[in-house]
Amino acid sequence: MDTIITLSTTVDNRKSNDHQTTSMYNGNNVTISDKMYQKAIRALLWKLDKRLIPFLTILELFSFLNRINIGNAKIAGIENTLHLTQTEYSWAVSIYFIGFMLLEIPSTLIMRYIGPSKFLSIIMIIWGLIMVSMAFGYGISLLEVRTKLNGWQWIFILEGSPCVLLGIVTYFFLGDLPETVQWLTNTEKELLTNRLRQDTVFQIYRAEDAPYFIRSHLISLGFMVAMLFASLILKYILWRENQHRDHLSPEQRTRELTMCGQEPCDAHPDFRYVT
Fold first, then answer.
1. Residue-level pLDDT at 199
2. Which is nearest to 117 in space by CA: 181, 162, 161?
3. Could you give the residue ranges of the DSSP H alpha helices within the chain?
4. Could you list the residue ranges that cross the membrane (predicted)?
5. pLDDT of 144 strictly over 50
6. How far apart are CA 28 and CA 271, in angstroms?
7. Which of 6-10, 146-150, 261-265 has the lowest mean pLDDT?
8. How far is CA 55 from CA 123, 173, 205, 253, in A?
9. CA–CA distances in Å: residue 50 to residues 1, 44, 53, 168, 207
């Protein structure tokens, strides 16, 4: 039978600095030294690292790839195929971050309510399907004409499809609570539970902080809205500068070239900011 270790500690009268941890073994109370307890904790953390970090690294890798795939699609010719203007492409890139900022707090609350395994699994499957649909949404309309897909469409397919598979694996691979994890022994589950109880960093919402929940979320939302407005203002300023350079008179263009020279730089009249 596994040894179930609890958090209660005692001090040996013979050595006041020798902390001991009460444990249960075969139904009997026993004690282990603090050194043994720390050794068990290190072994548990190493087991968790070996199990979780490689898998979570893969999830983060595909998360990163799917955040930048529209940039790769631009290199592969999505603008030419869809006849996108620079402004339309910029909005396609920016709209993701607007949704990211607005939904970050609600998504955290939802994950806490339904559990990480279900939440991560759902959003990965949905995102993977969206990525694939971004490729076929355009390709299906041309299937009667040709069956060959563009390079940028393959980018969405090859980077979106694994997310669907990883989402399914995530549901079975990750656990929500130590008690529900199948690959930990009873002793390890108890150790991990006690570790989480001791470490207040993992307590995202404490009961005594309930009166401050709304205020703290409003402050976070205020910062995000301020950043959004700052980004929009900067975008407008750069757009105005591009418009100004598009309508330079020959005399103004000559003057601008004289000021900055022939070297390419952001002050060159032919330079345009990406907005």
1. 62
2. 181
3. 34-75, 78-82, 86-114, 116-139, 151-173, 186-198, 213-246, 250-260
4. 91-114, 120-143, 155-174, 218-238
5. no
6. 78
7. 6-10
8. 16, 9, 27, 56
9. 25, 10, 6, 21, 33
